[in-house]
Specification:
- With about 350 residues, this protein is of the alpha/beta class.
- The chain is built from twelve helices and 13 strands.
- An eight-stranded parallel β-sheet has the order 2-3-4-5-6-7-8-9. It has a three-stranded antiparallel β-sheet with strand order 1-10-13.
- It is globular, with a radius of gyration of 19 Å.
Amino acid sequence: MEITLPRPDDFHLHLRDGAAMADVVAHSARQFARAVVMPNLKPPVRTVAEALAYRKRILAALPGGVDFTPLMTLYLTESTAPGEIERAADEVAMIGVKLYPAGATTNADSGVADLRRVRPVLEAMQAHDLPLLVHGEVTDPDVDIFDREAVFVDRVLDPLRRDFPALRIVLEHVTTRHAVEYVRASDGHLAATITPQHLLYNRNALFAGGLRPHYYCLPVLKLESDRQALLEAATGGDERFFLGTDSAPHARGAKETACGCAGIFSAHAALELYAEAFEQAGALDRLGEFAGRRGAAFYGLPENSGTVRLLKADWQVPASYPFGKGELVPLRDRESVGWKLAPESL
C-alpha cells in the first residue's frame, strides 16, 4: 500500500541555531517544501534584519541539492515598533509575527505581558495584512495547566479578534475541543495548526510506565475527547485547520532533568506520523489537503510543485539523533512507525 501527496509544508517549526540547527534542519527539508520558522532563539529574532540573517544560516546548513524554503517570523515584544512591521510586510521572506504570552513556553521570557502595549503594532499588522501567530495559553498561575488554552481563547483571543477583525490569526498547535469549536465558529481570518503528537496521543502518554519527559510539550497533551476533536478537525472539511508540527528539539539533558524543557521533536518522522493518525481515522485520502494545500491557501502562498510518496512499511525510530554537542530523543524513540517516506522523496 502507498499514497502520493502534494509536497507538503510545515507551518510551525523550531530549528534552533548553530550546530544544533545544522543537525535537525535536514529532517524537515527531506519532506517539506517550506516551513514557518519560529523566532524564539536566545536572544529572540526581533527585527527583519535578524530574521534574514537567521534565514541565511538555515539555508547554509542545508544538505547540497535540497530544495527547502524557510518562511521567517518576528518575535513580538512590548518594544516592537510599527515600522518593523512595515519592513516585514515588504520582505517576501517574512510570513508573520509570533505572539508568546510572557513566560508561556520555551524562550518566552521576552514575550508580551499586556496586549494593550502592542496595540500600535497589531494595528500595523492588520493594515499590512501580516498574520499574527499565537501561542494560545494564559500564564495565570491560578489557571489549571490543562485549562490554559481554553481560558486564553475566551479571555484573550476573542477580545483580540473583536478589536482587530481584519487581522489574520493562526492559533498555533491547537489542543482542545473548546478551541476547535471556537475556530469553526469564527470567520475566515482565524485558522489553527495541529501537531502530530496531539493527533496521536492524549495526556496518559505523559505517565505511561512512569513520568515520560519526551512527551512533555506546551500546550500539554489533553483528554482523549480533545484528541478526537482534533482528529475530526484535521480530517474534516474545514480548510482552516492545517499541518504545523511544532517540532521542538532539545538536548537529552534539557529534557531528562528536574525541570525539563517543553517540546517534542517530531521532524524525523513528521509526515509518517500524520499518516498514522489519518489512517486510524479512516481518512488517508484527506491527508494531502491537510498537509499540502490548506496552509498555503490561508497564507496566500502558491501550492508546491512535485509530490512525495509514502509507503505502508514499518521502521524503527532510532534511540537518538545528533544535536550539536549532544543528542536529542525523538518522538517514538526505539519504537516503530507504520509509514515510511519513499526513497525518491529523500
